TrEMBL record:
Stated family: Belongs to the ABC transporter superfamily.
Protein name: ABC transporter ATP-binding protein
InterPro entries (UniProt xref): AAA+_ATPase, ABC_AA/LPS_Transport, ABC_transporter-like_ATP-bd, ABC_transporter-like_CS, P-loop_NTPase
Chain segments annotated as coiled-coil in the UniProt record: none
Source organism: Mesorhizobium liriopis
Keywords of this entry: ATP-binding, Nucleotide-binding, Transport
Length: 265
């Protein structure tokens, strides 16, 4: 296993995967995978198709539970916590194919990301209606701020069904940000996005990182990865293959062979 890239230990870890294993039948999709993210890092997760990247991402986000291993968010092992517990603890994720509520407005979709609202409980609506109204007002203000941030404010009251693929990616980013996560897991944010919106997504992700959020992204667009990430992690056959600066990693023979093997197959 390659040595850890020095930058991962230069800052205090905020998210750490330790020896994660997840099998489906006799196939180990993730086989002893480990990763350390320092606070404020932006790291790219790359690898050929079938490398286990999506399964690893789903383990981190809580869609899947590992057969063994630990996932530390700060000092807390979240490996067996549900996704809603993880986002409450500061870990948010987007999906490769966003699926907004098509008939709800763009604003309403963003509001679904709000956490810990008193109005979610029946009794609070009767016992503390003023508090519920204040929270709802604050949530709506925050949602509008985020729609402005992702440049969708002109579509605030339109149904999500009218959005393009790239706009849906931006909408999902705004929804996740409603929970104010300290760690963002971004699943192929460039996939299916036109060049103009891709530049906007790159700019917004860079700004979120500059604000102090830690970002881990799966991405096949190596230009985007190279522009955003100082460190990339390469998976192959469920395990860590390489780790380092983008140019150094992509120049490695074993990385090239992993990708070329996929093409040959």
């Amino acid at each position: 296993m390659p040595a850890a890239f020095p930058s991962s230990s230069d800052t205090a870890p905020i998210l750490e995967a330790r020896g994660l294993v997840r099998a489906f039948g006799g196939l180990r999709a993730v086989d002893g995978m480990s990763l350390v993210l320092g606070r404020g890092e932006m790291v790219g997760l790359i690898g050929p198709n079938g490398a286990g990247k999506t399964t690893f991402f789903n383990l981190l986000a809580g869609s899947l539970v590992p057969d063994s291993g630990a996932i530390m968010l700060g000092n807390r092992d979240i490996a067996r916590e549900r996704p809603e517990k993880r986002i409450g603890a500061g870990l948010g994720r987007t999906f490769q194919i966003p699926k907004p509520f098509r008939e709800m407005t763009v604003l309403e979709n963003v509001l679904t990301g709000a956490q810990g609202q008193s109005g979610e409980g029946i009794l609070a609506n009767f016992l503390s209606p003023s508090r519920v109204r204040v929270e709802e007002h604050r949530a709506a203000e925050r949602a509008r701020e985020l729609l402005d941030f992702v440049r969708l404010s002109h579509l605030t009251h339109e149904p999500a069904a009218v959005l393009s693929g790239g706009q849906r990616k931006l909408l999902e980013l705004a929804r996740v940000l409603m929970a104010d996560p300290s760690v963002l897991l971004l699943d192929e944010p460039a996939a299916g996005v036109n060049p103009a919106l891709l530049e906007l997504i790159i700019d917004r992700v860079r700004l979120l990182n500059a604000q102090g959020r830690t970002v881990l992204l799966i991405e096949h667009n190596m230009d985007m990865v190279s522009r955003l990430c100082e460190r990339v992690v390469v998976m192959a056959e469920g395990s860590l293959l390489a780790e380092g600066a983008p140019a150094q990693v992509l120049a490695r023979k074993d990385v090239a062979e992993a990708y070329l093997g996929q093409v040959a197959a």
